[in-house]
């Protein structure tokens, strides 16, 4: 039995116990470093930095933005698009069979 108070003896371990196998050598377990290139942040970190007042302000801005989006007019179809839609509907009526729901009633 080892006496833990006197300290452990030098233990020599085999290499298979202390090193990764060759297939796992390059899986990113190396030393961590800072970014090498300064660039724009791709993540929104405002969750960590916003105060409650900032969150309320952003929420109000989003709600106001949604209200203005609803007031925007629906884009109008061009004359050419309207003509094409009319031709398609005429074609569907004239050359397609009635649906199975209509036939069974």
UniProtKB/TrEMBL annotation:
Transmembrane segments: none annotated. Residues 29-101 form the DUF3752 domain. Residues 38-89 have a biased composition (Basic and acidic residues). It holds the Pfam family DUF3752. Residues 91-105 have a biased composition (Polar residues). Residues 34-105 are annotated as: Disordered. This is GPALPP motifs-containing protein 1.
């Amino acid at each position: 039995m080892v006496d833990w108070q006197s300290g452990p003896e030098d233990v020599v371990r085999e290499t298979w116990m202390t090193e990764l196998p060759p297939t796992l050598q390059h899986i990113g377990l190396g030393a961590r470093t800072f970014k090498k290139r300064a660039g724009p942040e791709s993540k929104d970190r405002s969750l960590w930095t916003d105060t409650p007042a900032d969150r309320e302000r952003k929420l109000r801005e989003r709600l106001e933005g949604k209200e203005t989006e609803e007031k925007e007019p629906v884009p109008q179809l061009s004359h050419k698009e309207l003509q094409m839609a009319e031709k398609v509907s005429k074609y569907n009526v004239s050359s397609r069979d009635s649906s199975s729901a209509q036939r069974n009633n």
